[in-house]
């Protein structure tokens, strides 16, 4: 990929206060390299895992080489990033014995999803073998992969603010606007429509759904995946609005899903009002997610009630595909289905 500043000058337009890039037609470019270095160091240096054998943590980012940039062409954002990363990690057994090792991420780039990024863990030369190495290769790599996914998601949301300029009408293009939580207007069908309007007092036939799955991670980490905006954006690959508090609203998958948190019991349970955009106006199902620790895995039980009967299969398949399977693929939590 071309280095920052080496783009064709005939196509690149500088950011200007008078917003002359009308309708975002010309190519604009923003260097994200320095921001990315700071963000990657922040996320990777926070990696720490612990079990009955001891603890392991990333202690140093020894090499961070590469670049990142974002381009806007006709209102579409295009992301380029390529990084070679080397980390140092330290493991300490419960008996106080210290081991040192390395982590190498040779090619973190826009060509691969976070789940596909190669992460190599090793001990320093001449260090004796230890169970902490296997622990770091399994649980440590999961945390590092989650940090990488968080970087990618944040790059595509936080750093892109202001990249899409107002159009000739003074408003951003609809698909690039920041998601806003709002009430869904009730549609009134035309006289020749075969669909009857859903109004108060019209009975909606509903059903219950259940799902059960296992994830190779702790309840604490899996709970965070559902409540931390950057992690939600990582597995949905789209902007998300998440207010993880009782009564807090959420919106994800480009507005296809929205709702409200009713109960939040960290590491144990999430209860929410939840709906597809296509459901009858203002109708929500109640979805409960229960997290159960199963010796290194987390069993996740979903119970849903109030799901429109006609949407039963779609809702069940949507949760399996866009939540459960996407989380496993993004963060490497894959496990057998029950």
Automatic annotation (TrEMBL):
Subcellular location field:
Cytoplasm, Cytosol; Endoplasmic reticulum
UniProt keywords (A-Z) are: Acetylation, Chaperone, Cytoplasm, Endoplasmic reticulum, Isopeptide bond, Phosphoprotein, Stress response, Ubl conjugation
Gene it is expressed from: AHSA1
Coiled coil spans: none
Q: Which Gene3D superfamilies match?
A: 3.30.530.20, Activator of Hsp90 ATPase Aha1, N-terminal domain
Which named protein is this? Activator of 90 kDa heat shock protein ATPase homolog 1
Q: Which family does it belong to?
A: Belongs to the AHA1 family.
- Locate the Activator of Hsp90 ATPase AHSA1-like N-terminal domain: which residues? 29-161
A single Gene Ontology CC term: cytosol
Q: Which PANTHER family match?
A: ACTIVATOR OF 90 KDA HEAT SHOCK PROTEIN ATPASE HOMOLOG 1, HEAT SHOCK PROTEIN 90 HSP90 CO-CHAPERONE AHA-1
Q: Where is this region: Disordered?
A: 170-199
Q: What is the originating organism of this protein?
A: Microcaecilia unicolor
Q: Which Pfam families match?
A: Aha1_N (PF09229), AHSA1 (PF08327)
């Amino acid at each position: 990929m071309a280095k920052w500043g080496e783009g064709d000058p005939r196509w690149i337009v500088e950011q200007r206060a008078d917003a002359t890039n009308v309708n975002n037609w010309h190519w604009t470019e923003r260097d994200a390299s320095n921001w990315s270095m700071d963000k990657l160091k922040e996320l990777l240096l926070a990696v720490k895992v612990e079990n009955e054998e001891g603890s392991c943590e990333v202690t140093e980012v020894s090499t961070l080489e590469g670049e990142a940039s974002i381009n806007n062409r006709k209102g579409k954002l295009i992301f380029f990033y390529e990084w070679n990363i080397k980390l140092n990690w330290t493991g300490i057994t419960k008996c106080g014995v210290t081991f040192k090792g390395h982590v190498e991420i040779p090619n973190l780039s826009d060509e691969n999803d976070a789940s596909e990024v190669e992460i190599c863990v090793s001990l320093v030369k001449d260090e004796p073998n230890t169970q902490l190495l296997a622990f770091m290769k399994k649980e440590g790599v999961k945390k590092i992969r989650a940090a990488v996914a968080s970087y990618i998601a944040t790059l595509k949301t936080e750093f892109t603010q202001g990249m899409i300029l107002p159009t000739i009408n003074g408003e951003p293009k609809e698909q690039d606007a920041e998601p806003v939580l709002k009430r869904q207007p009730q549609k009134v069908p035309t006289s020749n429509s075969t669909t009857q309007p859903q109004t108060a007092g019209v009975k909606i036939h509903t059903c219950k759904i259940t799902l059960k799955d296992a994830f190779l991670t702790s309840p604490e980490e899996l709970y965070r995946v559902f409540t931390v905006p950057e992690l939600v954006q990582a597995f949905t690959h789209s902007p998300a609005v998440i207010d993880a508090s009782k009564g807090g609203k959420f919106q994800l998958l480009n507005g296809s899903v929205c709702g409200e948190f009713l109960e939040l019991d960290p590491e144990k349970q999430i209860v929410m009002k939840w709906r597809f955009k296509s459901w009858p106006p203002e109708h929500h199902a109640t979805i409960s997610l229960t997290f159960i620790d199963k010796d290194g895995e987390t069993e996740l039980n979903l119970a849903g009630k109030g799901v429109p009967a006609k949407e039963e299969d779609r809702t069940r398949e949507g949760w399996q595909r866009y939540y459960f399977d996407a989380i496993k693929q993004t963060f490497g939590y894959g496990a057998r289905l029950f």
